[in-house]
Protein backbone atom coordinates (compact mmCIF):
# COMPACT_ATOMS: atom_id res chain seq x y z
CA UNK A 1 0.00 0.00 0.00
CA UNK A 2 1.30 3.42 -0.93
CA UNK A 3 2.31 5.66 1.96
CA UNK A 4 0.56 8.98 2.42
CA UNK A 5 3.88 10.81 2.80
CA UNK A 6 7.13 10.58 0.85
CA UNK A 7 10.66 11.99 0.90
CA UNK A 8 14.18 10.84 0.08
CA UNK A 9 17.33 12.77 0.92
CA UNK A 10 18.53 13.20 -2.66
CA UNK A 11 17.40 14.68 -5.99
CA UNK A 12 14.84 15.93 -6.73
CA UNK A 13 13.60 16.05 -3.11
CA UNK A 14 16.82 17.22 -1.43
CA UNK A 15 19.77 18.93 -3.11
CA UNK A 16 22.25 21.76 -2.71
CA UNK A 17 21.29 25.18 -4.07
CA UNK A 18 24.60 26.60 -2.87
CA UNK A 19 27.38 25.65 -0.48
CA UNK A 20 25.23 26.67 2.49
CA UNK A 21 21.64 26.15 1.30
CA UNK A 22 19.73 22.93 0.69
CA UNK A 23 16.31 22.81 -0.94
CA UNK A 24 13.98 20.25 0.63
CA UNK A 25 10.66 18.94 -0.74
CA UNK A 26 8.08 16.83 1.06
CA UNK A 27 5.23 14.99 -0.67
CA UNK A 28 1.98 14.50 1.25
CA UNK A 29 -1.29 12.92 0.15
CA UNK A 30 -3.49 15.72 -1.28
CA UNK A 31 -5.52 17.72 1.23
CA UNK A 32 -4.08 15.79 4.18
CA UNK A 33 -1.65 18.26 5.76
CA UNK A 34 -2.89 21.52 7.23
CA UNK A 35 0.67 22.56 7.99
CA UNK A 36 4.19 21.11 7.64
CA UNK A 37 7.05 22.23 9.88
CA UNK A 38 10.60 21.13 9.20
CA UNK A 39 12.98 20.86 12.17
CA UNK A 40 16.67 20.93 11.34
CA UNK A 41 20.18 21.54 12.59
CA UNK A 42 23.79 20.38 12.44
CA UNK A 43 23.81 16.61 12.16
CA UNK A 44 26.39 16.33 14.93
CA UNK A 45 24.21 18.21 17.42
CA UNK A 46 22.01 16.26 19.80
CA UNK A 47 18.86 18.31 19.10
CA UNK A 48 17.37 20.41 16.35
CA UNK A 49 18.44 24.04 16.60
CA UNK A 50 15.94 25.54 14.13
CA UNK A 51 12.50 25.06 12.62
CA UNK A 52 10.38 26.72 9.96
CA UNK A 53 7.06 26.23 8.25
CA UNK A 54 7.31 24.72 4.78
CA UNK A 55 5.57 26.49 1.90
CA UNK A 56 2.89 24.80 -0.18
CA UNK A 57 4.34 24.46 -3.68
CA UNK A 58 1.55 22.93 -5.76
CA UNK A 59 -0.31 19.68 -6.17
CA UNK A 60 -0.91 16.94 -8.71
CA UNK A 61 -3.19 13.92 -8.58
CA UNK A 62 -0.76 12.07 -6.25
CA UNK A 63 0.81 14.63 -3.93
CA UNK A 64 0.74 18.02 -2.30
CA UNK A 65 4.26 19.44 -2.49
CA UNK A 66 5.85 21.43 0.34
CA UNK A 67 9.21 23.20 0.03
CA UNK A 68 11.77 24.91 2.25
CA UNK A 69 15.30 26.23 1.72
CA UNK A 70 17.48 25.46 4.71
CA UNK A 71 20.58 27.50 5.52
CA UNK A 72 23.39 25.72 7.33
CA UNK A 73 26.52 27.52 8.48
CA UNK A 74 28.26 24.19 9.11
CA UNK A 75 27.03 22.73 5.78
CA UNK A 76 25.92 19.59 7.66
CA UNK A 77 22.21 18.93 7.98
CA UNK A 78 19.81 16.63 9.72
CA UNK A 79 16.08 17.22 9.56
CA UNK A 80 12.64 15.76 10.22
CA UNK A 81 9.09 16.82 9.40
CA UNK A 82 6.19 17.58 11.72
CA UNK A 83 2.99 17.09 9.73
CA UNK A 84 -0.11 18.70 11.19
CA UNK A 85 -3.41 17.12 10.05
CA UNK A 86 -7.00 17.73 11.12
CA UNK A 87 -6.90 14.75 13.50
CA UNK A 88 -3.40 14.79 14.97
CA UNK A 89 0.29 15.53 14.39
CA UNK A 90 2.90 13.12 13.01
CA UNK A 91 6.67 13.13 12.82
CA UNK A 92 8.32 11.80 9.67
CA UNK A 93 11.97 10.90 9.21
CA UNK A 94 14.18 8.26 7.64
CA UNK A 95 12.80 5.56 9.97
CA UNK A 96 9.22 6.35 8.97
CA UNK A 97 6.23 7.91 10.74
CA UNK A 98 6.34 8.31 14.49
CA UNK A 99 4.78 10.11 17.43
CA UNK A 100 8.03 11.98 18.08
CA UNK A 101 11.36 12.64 16.39
CA UNK A 102 13.03 9.80 18.26
CA UNK A 103 10.59 7.32 16.70
CA UNK A 104 10.73 8.77 13.20
CA UNK A 105 14.48 9.26 12.94
CA UNK A 106 16.06 11.96 10.82
CA UNK A 107 17.02 12.54 7.23
CA UNK A 108 20.52 13.79 6.52
CA UNK A 109 22.38 15.85 3.97
CA UNK A 110 25.82 14.92 5.34
CA UNK A 111 27.73 17.81 3.79
CA UNK A 112 26.97 20.46 1.17
CA UNK A 113 30.03 19.78 -0.97
CA UNK A 114 30.94 22.58 -3.36
CA UNK A 115 31.37 20.26 -6.34
CA UNK A 116 27.92 18.79 -5.75
CA UNK A 117 26.23 22.15 -6.31
CA UNK A 118 24.48 21.95 -9.69
CA UNK A 119 25.85 24.92 -11.62
CA UNK A 120 24.17 26.03 -14.86
CA UNK A 121 25.05 29.10 -16.95
CA UNK A 122 23.71 32.31 -15.46
CA UNK A 123 22.69 33.55 -18.90
CA UNK A 124 19.97 30.89 -19.33
CA UNK A 125 17.65 32.86 -17.01
CA UNK A 126 16.19 34.93 -19.86
CA UNK A 127 17.44 32.98 -22.87
CA UNK A 128 15.27 32.56 -25.99
CA UNK A 129 16.41 29.64 -28.17
CA UNK A 130 15.91 29.29 -31.91
CA UNK A 131 16.56 26.02 -33.70
CA UNK A 132 17.97 26.16 -37.23
CA UNK A 133 18.21 23.30 -39.74
CA UNK A 134 21.05 24.87 -41.79
CA UNK A 135 20.19 23.41 -45.21
CA UNK A 136 16.65 24.81 -44.96
CA UNK A 137 17.12 28.23 -43.34
CA UNK A 138 18.75 30.73 -45.70
CA UNK A 139 21.17 30.95 -48.63
CA UNK A 140 24.03 33.42 -48.44
CA UNK A 141 26.49 31.95 -50.93
CA UNK A 142 25.60 32.53 -54.58
CA UNK A 143 26.92 29.09 -55.59
CA UNK A 144 23.96 27.52 -53.79
CA UNK A 145 21.27 29.76 -55.29
CA UNK A 146 20.66 27.60 -58.34
CA UNK A 147 20.25 24.53 -56.17
CA UNK A 148 17.33 26.02 -54.30
CA UNK A 149 15.55 27.78 -57.13
CA UNK A 150 13.25 24.85 -57.90
CA UNK A 151 13.26 23.14 -54.53
CA UNK A 152 12.97 25.79 -51.81
CA UNK A 153 9.19 26.12 -51.95
CA UNK A 154 8.51 22.46 -52.69
CA UNK A 155 7.73 19.70 -50.22
CA UNK A 156 11.09 18.18 -49.23
CA UNK A 157 12.09 14.56 -49.57
CA UNK A 158 14.58 12.67 -47.39
CA UNK A 159 17.25 13.40 -50.01
CA UNK A 160 16.42 17.05 -50.81
CA UNK A 161 19.30 19.54 -50.67
CA UNK A 162 18.05 23.12 -50.68
CA UNK A 163 21.33 24.98 -50.36
CA UNK A 164 21.07 26.76 -47.01
CA UNK A 165 24.45 27.65 -45.55
CA UNK A 166 26.35 29.48 -42.81
CA UNK A 167 26.50 32.70 -44.80
CA UNK A 168 22.72 32.61 -45.04
CA UNK A 169 22.41 32.36 -41.27
CA UNK A 170 24.76 35.32 -40.83
CA UNK A 171 22.65 37.37 -43.25
CA UNK A 172 19.56 36.82 -41.08
CA UNK A 173 21.05 37.45 -37.65
CA UNK A 174 19.55 40.93 -37.53
CA UNK A 175 16.04 39.53 -37.95
CA UNK A 176 16.65 36.94 -35.24
CA UNK A 177 17.87 39.69 -32.93
CA UNK A 178 14.69 41.69 -33.61
CA UNK A 179 12.66 38.60 -32.77
CA UNK A 180 14.37 38.46 -29.37
CA UNK A 181 16.54 35.39 -29.95
CA UNK A 182 19.58 35.08 -27.68
CA UNK A 183 20.55 31.46 -28.35
CA UNK A 184 20.88 29.72 -31.73
CA UNK A 185 20.85 25.92 -31.83
CA UNK A 186 22.22 24.45 -35.07
CA UNK A 187 21.54 20.88 -36.11
CA UNK A 188 24.75 19.14 -37.31
CA UNK A 189 27.15 21.09 -39.50
CA UNK A 190 30.02 18.58 -39.75
CA UNK A 191 31.02 16.81 -42.97
CA UNK A 192 28.42 14.19 -43.87
CA UNK A 193 26.68 12.67 -46.89
CA UNK A 194 23.05 13.52 -46.01
CA UNK A 195 21.18 16.83 -45.94
CA UNK A 196 20.60 16.54 -42.18
CA UNK A 197 24.25 15.64 -41.32
CA UNK A 198 23.40 13.23 -38.49
CA UNK A 199 25.62 10.70 -40.32
CA UNK A 200 28.94 12.35 -39.47
CA UNK A 201 31.91 11.58 -41.72
CA UNK A 202 34.44 13.93 -40.12
CA UNK A 203 33.90 15.48 -36.67
CA UNK A 204 36.64 18.05 -37.23
CA UNK A 205 35.44 19.51 -40.54
CA UNK A 206 32.54 21.79 -41.54
CA UNK A 207 30.58 20.32 -44.44
CA UNK A 208 31.50 22.13 -47.64
CA UNK A 209 27.77 22.47 -48.39
CA UNK A 210 27.54 24.92 -45.49
CA UNK A 211 30.84 26.74 -45.90
CA UNK A 212 34.26 26.88 -44.30
CA UNK A 213 35.68 26.97 -40.82
CA UNK A 214 36.42 30.64 -41.26
CA UNK A 215 32.79 31.28 -42.17
CA UNK A 216 31.73 29.37 -39.07
CA UNK A 217 34.13 31.41 -36.99
CA UNK A 218 32.59 34.53 -38.51
CA UNK A 219 29.08 33.32 -37.62
CA UNK A 220 30.08 32.84 -34.00
CA UNK A 221 31.74 36.26 -33.91
CA UNK A 222 28.74 38.02 -35.46
CA UNK A 223 26.31 36.22 -33.16
CA UNK A 224 28.32 37.17 -30.09
CA UNK A 225 28.45 40.78 -31.25
CA UNK A 226 24.64 40.78 -31.23
CA UNK A 227 24.42 39.18 -27.79
CA UNK A 228 23.56 35.73 -29.14
CA UNK A 229 25.12 32.42 -28.22
CA UNK A 230 25.49 29.40 -30.48
CA UNK A 231 25.02 25.74 -29.52
CA UNK A 232 25.75 22.99 -32.04
CA UNK A 233 24.66 19.37 -32.39
CA UNK A 234 26.97 16.51 -31.36
CA UNK A 235 26.20 13.07 -32.76
CA UNK A 236 28.25 10.76 -30.55
CA UNK A 237 25.93 7.77 -30.35
CA UNK A 238 26.65 6.88 -33.97
CA UNK A 239 28.61 8.05 -36.97
CA UNK A 240 28.11 7.91 -40.73
CA UNK A 241 29.14 4.99 -42.92
CA UNK A 242 31.82 7.23 -44.50
CA UNK A 243 33.53 7.82 -41.13
CA UNK A 244 37.15 6.79 -41.74
CA UNK A 245 37.41 4.34 -38.79
CA UNK A 246 34.28 2.50 -39.99
CA UNK A 247 35.57 2.34 -43.56
CA UNK A 248 38.82 0.93 -42.21
CA UNK A 249 36.83 -1.81 -40.44
CA UNK A 250 34.92 -2.50 -43.67
CA UNK A 251 38.16 -2.93 -45.63
CA UNK A 252 40.27 -4.84 -43.09
CA UNK A 253 37.73 -6.74 -41.03
CA UNK A 254 38.78 -7.85 -37.59
CA UNK A 255 42.37 -6.87 -38.42
CA UNK A 256 41.37 -3.20 -38.39
CA UNK A 257 42.69 -1.19 -35.45
CA UNK A 258 39.22 0.42 -35.34
CA UNK A 259 37.29 -2.87 -35.15
CA UNK A 260 36.46 -2.40 -31.48
CA UNK A 261 35.11 1.10 -32.14
CA UNK A 262 31.86 -0.53 -33.27
CA UNK A 263 29.47 -3.37 -32.38
CA UNK A 264 30.15 -5.89 -35.16
CA UNK A 265 29.12 -9.57 -35.20
CA UNK A 266 31.51 -11.92 -37.00
CA UNK A 267 34.89 -11.25 -38.56
CA UNK A 268 33.86 -8.93 -41.40
CA UNK A 269 31.46 -6.02 -41.85
CA UNK A 270 28.47 -7.08 -43.94
CA UNK A 271 26.82 -3.86 -45.12
CA UNK A 272 24.19 -5.74 -47.14
CA UNK A 273 22.94 -7.85 -44.23
CA UNK A 274 23.94 -5.31 -41.54
CA UNK A 275 25.75 -7.41 -38.95
CA UNK A 276 26.54 -4.36 -36.82
CA UNK A 277 24.55 -2.17 -34.44
CA UNK A 278 23.20 1.06 -35.88
CA UNK A 279 21.16 4.06 -34.90
CA UNK A 280 17.71 2.69 -33.93
CA UNK A 281 18.83 -0.70 -35.35
CA UNK A 282 17.23 0.38 -38.62
CA UNK A 283 19.60 2.84 -40.33
CA UNK A 284 22.53 0.88 -41.78
CA UNK A 285 24.26 4.11 -42.84
CA UNK A 286 24.68 5.14 -39.18
CA UNK A 287 26.84 2.57 -37.32
CA UNK A 288 26.64 2.81 -33.53
CA UNK A 289 29.86 3.84 -31.80
CA UNK A 290 31.24 1.85 -28.87
CA UNK A 291 31.71 4.91 -26.67
CA UNK A 292 32.96 2.78 -23.75
CA UNK A 293 36.08 2.02 -25.79
CA UNK A 294 38.78 4.30 -24.29
CA UNK A 295 40.00 5.30 -27.75
CA UNK A 296 36.51 6.30 -28.88
CA UNK A 297 35.94 8.15 -25.63
CA UNK A 298 39.19 10.10 -25.99
CA UNK A 299 38.40 10.94 -29.60
CA UNK A 300 34.90 12.24 -28.86
CA UNK A 301 36.01 14.25 -25.85
CA UNK A 302 38.66 15.89 -28.02
CA UNK A 303 35.87 16.86 -30.45
CA UNK A 304 33.88 18.44 -27.62
CA UNK A 305 36.88 20.48 -26.50
CA UNK A 306 38.11 21.44 -29.98
CA UNK A 307 35.02 23.35 -31.14
CA UNK A 308 34.83 25.30 -27.90
CA UNK A 309 38.50 26.23 -27.72
CA UNK A 310 39.03 26.88 -31.42
CA UNK A 311 35.71 28.49 -32.36
CA UNK A 312 34.23 29.69 -29.06
CA UNK A 313 30.90 27.87 -29.42
CA UNK A 314 28.64 28.19 -26.39
CA UNK A 315 27.66 24.60 -25.82
CA UNK A 316 26.42 21.31 -27.19
CA UNK A 317 23.11 19.63 -27.92
CA UNK A 318 23.63 15.87 -27.64
CA UNK A 319 21.84 13.59 -30.08
CA UNK A 320 20.40 10.25 -28.82
CA UNK A 321 21.98 11.05 -25.47
CA UNK A 322 20.12 8.35 -23.53
CA UNK A 323 21.85 5.52 -25.42
CA UNK A 324 25.33 6.49 -24.20
CA UNK A 325 26.59 5.53 -20.74
CA UNK A 326 26.49 7.96 -17.84
CA UNK A 327 30.22 7.62 -17.20
CA UNK A 328 30.99 9.15 -20.59
CA UNK A 329 28.63 12.06 -20.03
CA UNK A 330 30.22 12.79 -16.65
CA UNK A 331 33.62 13.03 -18.33
CA UNK A 332 32.07 15.06 -21.15
CA UNK A 333 30.75 17.61 -18.67
CA UNK A 334 34.14 17.96 -17.01
CA UNK A 335 35.86 18.56 -20.36
CA UNK A 336 33.26 21.05 -21.62
CA UNK A 337 33.00 23.05 -18.41
CA UNK A 338 36.81 23.18 -18.09
CA UNK A 339 37.02 24.60 -21.62
CA UNK A 340 34.17 27.09 -21.06
CA UNK A 341 32.53 27.21 -17.62
CA UNK A 342 29.32 28.86 -18.86
CA UNK A 343 28.83 26.51 -21.82
CA UNK A 344 25.39 24.91 -22.03
CA UNK A 345 24.86 21.14 -22.30
CA UNK A 346 21.48 19.92 -23.57
CA UNK A 347 20.70 16.22 -24.02
CA UNK A 348 18.16 14.71 -26.38
CA UNK A 349 16.03 12.62 -24.02
CA UNK A 350 12.32 12.26 -24.78
CA UNK A 351 11.26 10.83 -21.40
CA UNK A 352 11.85 11.31 -17.68
CA UNK A 353 15.44 12.58 -17.58
CA UNK A 354 16.35 12.73 -13.88
CA UNK A 355 19.31 10.28 -14.18
CA UNK A 356 21.05 12.83 -16.44
CA UNK A 357 20.01 15.93 -14.49
CA UNK A 358 21.63 15.61 -11.08
CA UNK A 359 24.34 18.17 -11.84
CA UNK A 360 27.04 15.79 -13.05
CA UNK A 361 26.00 15.39 -16.71
CA UNK A 362 23.59 17.71 -18.58
CA UNK A 363 22.28 21.16 -17.74
CA UNK A 364 18.93 20.37 -19.34
CA UNK A 365 17.25 18.27 -22.02
CA UNK A 366 14.96 18.69 -25.00
CA UNK A 367 11.75 18.86 -22.96
CA UNK A 368 9.45 16.60 -24.97
CA UNK A 369 7.51 15.71 -21.81
CA UNK A 370 6.57 19.40 -21.60
CA UNK A 371 5.60 19.38 -25.29
CA UNK A 372 3.35 16.35 -24.89
CA UNK A 373 1.42 17.93 -22.02
CA UNK A 374 1.06 21.28 -23.77
CA UNK A 375 -0.24 19.69 -26.97
CA UNK A 376 -2.79 17.61 -25.09
CA UNK A 377 -4.28 20.71 -23.47
CA UNK A 378 -3.90 23.63 -25.88
CA UNK A 379 -3.91 21.92 -29.27
CA UNK A 380 -5.76 18.62 -28.95
CA UNK A 381 -8.13 19.54 -26.11
CA UNK A 382 -7.78 16.07 -24.59
CA UNK A 383 -7.04 17.24 -21.03
CA UNK A 384 -9.08 19.45 -18.73
CA UNK A 385 -7.45 22.46 -17.09
CA UNK A 386 -7.21 20.47 -13.85
CA UNK A 387 -5.45 17.50 -15.45
CA UNK A 388 -3.10 19.82 -17.33
CA UNK A 389 -2.19 21.71 -14.15
CA UNK A 390 -1.48 18.41 -12.41
CA UNK A 391 0.75 17.20 -15.25
CA UNK A 392 2.73 20.44 -15.28
CA UNK A 393 3.09 20.53 -11.49
CA UNK A 394 4.43 16.99 -11.51
CA UNK A 395 6.90 17.92 -14.26
CA UNK A 396 8.17 20.93 -12.30
CA UNK A 397 8.89 18.73 -9.30
CA UNK A 398 10.61 16.01 -11.31
CA UNK A 399 14.00 17.75 -11.49
CA UNK A 400 16.25 20.08 -9.45
CA UNK A 401 15.51 23.75 -10.07
CA UNK A 402 18.79 24.24 -11.95
CA UNK A 403 17.68 21.70 -14.56
CA UNK A 404 14.20 23.24 -14.75
CA UNK A 405 15.85 26.57 -15.51
CA UNK A 406 17.94 25.07 -18.34
CA UNK A 407 15.37 22.98 -20.22
CA UNK A 408 14.75 23.47 -23.94
CA UNK A 409 10.95 23.85 -23.80
CA UNK A 410 9.88 23.14 -27.36
CA UNK A 411 6.61 22.97 -29.30
CA UNK A 412 8.22 21.34 -32.31
CA UNK A 413 11.55 20.34 -33.83
CA UNK A 414 13.07 18.74 -36.92
CA UNK A 415 11.74 15.42 -35.58
CA UNK A 416 8.08 16.42 -35.14
CA UNK A 417 5.10 17.86 -36.99
CA UNK A 418 4.85 21.64 -37.07
CA UNK A 419 2.76 23.18 -34.30
CA UNK A 420 0.45 25.05 -36.72
CA UNK A 421 -0.17 21.83 -38.64
CA UNK A 422 -1.10 20.03 -35.43
CA UNK A 423 -3.45 22.93 -34.66
CA UNK A 424 -5.06 22.45 -38.10
CA UNK A 425 -4.13 25.97 -39.10
CA UNK A 426 -5.67 27.63 -36.04
CA UNK A 427 -3.21 30.46 -35.28
CA UNK A 428 -5.09 31.47 -32.13
CA UNK A 429 -4.46 28.03 -30.64
CA UNK A 430 -0.79 28.40 -31.47
CA UNK A 431 -0.69 31.88 -29.92
CA UNK A 432 -2.13 30.54 -26.66
CA UNK A 433 0.43 27.75 -26.68
CA UNK A 434 3.24 30.24 -27.26
CA UNK A 435 2.12 32.34 -24.31
CA UNK A 436 2.29 29.30 -22.07
CA UNK A 437 5.67 28.30 -23.49
CA UNK A 438 7.20 31.73 -22.91
CA UNK A 439 5.79 32.09 -19.39
CA UNK A 440 6.90 28.62 -18.28
CA UNK A 441 10.17 28.06 -16.36
CA UNK A 442 13.07 27.17 -18.61
CA UNK A 443 14.23 28.18 -22.10
CA UNK A 444 11.51 28.61 -24.73
CA UNK A 445 12.76 27.10 -27.99
CA UNK A 446 11.28 28.19 -31.33
CA UNK A 447 11.74 25.88 -34.32
CA UNK A 448 12.68 27.96 -37.35
CA UNK A 449 9.61 29.25 -39.16
CA UNK A 450 7.07 28.48 -36.45
CA UNK A 451 7.08 32.17 -35.58
CA UNK A 452 5.76 33.05 -39.06
CA UNK A 453 3.25 30.23 -39.38
CA UNK A 454 5.14 27.58 -41.34
CA UNK A 455 3.36 24.25 -41.64
CA UNK A 456 4.56 20.69 -42.20
CA UNK A 457 3.81 17.13 -41.23
CA UNK A 458 6.19 14.47 -39.96
CA UNK A 459 9.82 14.27 -41.11
CA UNK A 460 10.79 15.23 -43.79
CA UNK A 461 7.81 17.58 -44.32
CA UNK A 462 8.63 19.52 -41.14
CA UNK A 463 11.97 20.45 -42.73
CA UNK A 464 10.71 22.74 -45.50
CA UNK A 465 12.68 25.75 -46.69
CA UNK A 466 12.24 28.78 -44.43
CA UNK A 467 9.36 31.01 -45.50
CA UNK A 468 10.96 34.44 -46.04
CA UNK A 469 8.24 35.89 -48.27
CA UNK A 470 6.47 38.36 -45.96
CA UNK A 471 3.29 38.06 -48.00
CA UNK A 472 3.06 34.43 -46.89
CA UNK A 473 4.10 34.93 -43.28
CA UNK A 474 1.68 35.10 -40.37
CA UNK A 475 2.72 38.48 -39.00
CA UNK A 476 0.37 38.19 -36.01
CA UNK A 477 2.20 35.11 -34.72
CA UNK A 478 5.50 36.88 -35.33
CA UNK A 479 4.27 39.85 -33.30
CA UNK A 480 3.24 37.55 -30.46
CA UNK A 481 6.65 35.85 -30.36
CA UNK A 482 8.51 39.17 -30.52
CA UNK A 483 6.52 40.64 -27.65
CA UNK A 484 6.68 37.49 -25.57
CA UNK A 485 10.45 37.48 -26.00
CA UNK A 486 10.63 41.11 -24.87
CA UNK A 487 8.50 40.35 -21.84
CA UNK A 488 10.65 37.32 -21.09
CA UNK A 489 13.77 39.47 -21.05
CA UNK A 490 12.22 42.23 -18.93
CA UNK A 491 10.23 40.42 -16.25
CA UNK A 492 12.38 38.98 -13.44
CA UNK A 493 9.48 36.80 -12.27
CA UNK A 494 9.88 34.86 -15.53
CA UNK A 495 13.58 34.26 -14.83
CA UNK A 496 12.92 32.04 -11.82
CA UNK A 497 11.58 28.50 -11.54
CA UNK A 498 8.64 28.91 -9.14
CA UNK A 499 5.17 28.44 -10.62
CA UNK A 500 1.86 28.04 -8.79
CA UNK A 501 -1.55 27.24 -10.25
CA UNK A 502 -4.20 29.37 -8.58
CA UNK A 503 -7.16 27.90 -10.42
CA UNK A 504 -7.61 25.08 -12.92
CA UNK A 505 -11.33 24.41 -13.26
CA UNK A 506 -14.61 25.76 -14.68
CA UNK A 507 -13.03 26.86 -17.91
CA UNK A 508 -10.16 28.76 -16.31
CA UNK A 509 -6.45 28.20 -15.97
CA UNK A 510 -4.68 30.72 -13.73
CA UNK A 511 -1.05 30.42 -12.71
CA UNK A 512 1.52 32.63 -11.11
CA UNK A 513 5.24 32.99 -11.72
CA UNK A 514 7.42 34.16 -8.84
CA UNK A 515 10.90 35.65 -8.95
CA UNK A 516 13.72 33.89 -7.12
CA UNK A 517 13.67 36.48 -4.33
CA UNK A 518 9.88 36.22 -4.00
CA UNK A 519 9.40 39.97 -4.52
CA UNK A 520 7.94 39.97 -8.04
CA UNK A 521 4.95 38.03 -9.32
CA UNK A 522 3.42 37.64 -12.76
CA UNK A 523 0.06 36.00 -13.33
CA UNK A 524 -1.36 34.37 -16.44
CA UNK A 525 -5.04 33.65 -17.02
CA UNK A 526 -6.53 31.48 -19.75
CA UNK A 527 -10.30 31.87 -19.67
CA UNK A 528 -12.65 29.49 -21.46
CA UNK A 529 -15.66 30.61 -19.45
CA UNK A 530 -18.30 32.94 -20.89
CA UNK A 531 -17.91 35.60 -18.22
CA UNK A 532 -14.96 37.89 -17.65
CA UNK A 533 -12.74 37.37 -14.63
CA UNK A 534 -10.20 39.65 -13.04
CA UNK A 535 -7.07 38.72 -11.13
CA UNK A 536 -6.30 40.10 -7.65
CA UNK A 537 -5.14 43.70 -7.36
CA UNK A 538 -1.59 42.72 -6.38
CA UNK A 539 -0.96 41.40 -9.89
CA UNK A 540 0.08 44.05 -12.41
CA UNK A 541 0.54 41.92 -15.53
CA UNK A 542 -1.95 39.60 -17.07
CA UNK A 543 -2.60 37.60 -20.17
CA UNK A 544 -6.26 36.75 -20.63
CA UNK A 545 -8.29 34.73 -23.09
CA UNK A 546 -11.93 35.83 -22.76
CA UNK A 547 -13.98 33.53 -24.99
CA UNK A 548 -10.90 32.50 -26.95
CA UNK A 549 -9.70 35.97 -27.94
CA UNK A 550 -6.06 36.77 -27.37
CA UNK A 551 -5.19 39.30 -24.72
CA UNK A 552 -1.56 40.21 -24.70
CA UNK A 553 -0.61 43.49 -23.14
CA UNK A 554 0.71 45.18 -20.03
CA UNK A 555 -2.47 46.32 -18.28
CA UNK A 556 -3.99 47.64 -15.10
CA UNK A 557 -5.43 44.79 -12.99
CA UNK A 558 -9.00 45.42 -14.11
CA UNK A 559 -8.34 45.95 -17.82
CA UNK A 560 -9.01 43.60 -20.73
CA UNK A 561 -7.71 44.10 -24.26
CA UNK A 562 -8.70 41.72 -27.03
CA UNK A 563 -6.57 40.61 -29.98
CA UNK A 564 -7.81 43.20 -32.43
CA UNK A 565 -7.12 46.17 -30.14
CA UNK A 566 -3.66 44.88 -29.24
CA UNK A 567 -3.03 44.08 -32.88
CA UNK A 568 -3.90 47.59 -34.03
CA UNK A 569 -1.94 49.11 -31.18
CA UNK A 570 1.16 47.28 -32.39
CA UNK A 571 0.81 48.93 -35.79
CA UNK A 572 0.57 45.68 -37.75
Descriptive report:
The chain starts with a strand and ends with a helix. The strands form 6 sheets. The protein has an 8-stranded parallel sheet. Strands 4, 5, 8, 9, 10 and 11 form a 6-stranded antiparallel sheet that branches. Strands 1, 2, 3, 6 and 7 form a 5-stranded antiparallel sheet that branches. Helix content is 25%, strand content 22%. It is globular, with a radius of gyration of 26 Å. Strand 6 (55-59) and strand 7 (64-71) form a beta hairpin. It contains 15 helices and 26 strands. With 572 residues, the protein is α/β, with parallel strands linked by helices. Helix 7 (294-311) runs parallel beside helix 8 (326-339), helix 9 packs antiparallel against helix 10 and helix 9 packs across helix 13 (427-438). It has 4 domains: 5-116, Sandwich (Immunoglobulin-like), CATH 2.60.40; 122-237 and 291-490, TIM Barrel; 238-289, Oligo-1,6-glucosidase, Domain 2 (Oligo-1,6-glucosidase, domain 2), CATH 3.90.400.10; 498-569, no CATH class.
Keywords:
Oligo-1,6-glucosidase, domain 2, eight-stranded parallel beta sheet, alpha/beta, 4 domains, Immunoglobulin-like, globular, TIM Barrel, 22% strand, 572 residues, six-stranded antiparallel beta sheet, disordered C terminus
Kindly summarize this structure in a few lines.
With 572 residues, this protein is an alpha/beta fold. The chain contains 15 helices and 26 strands.
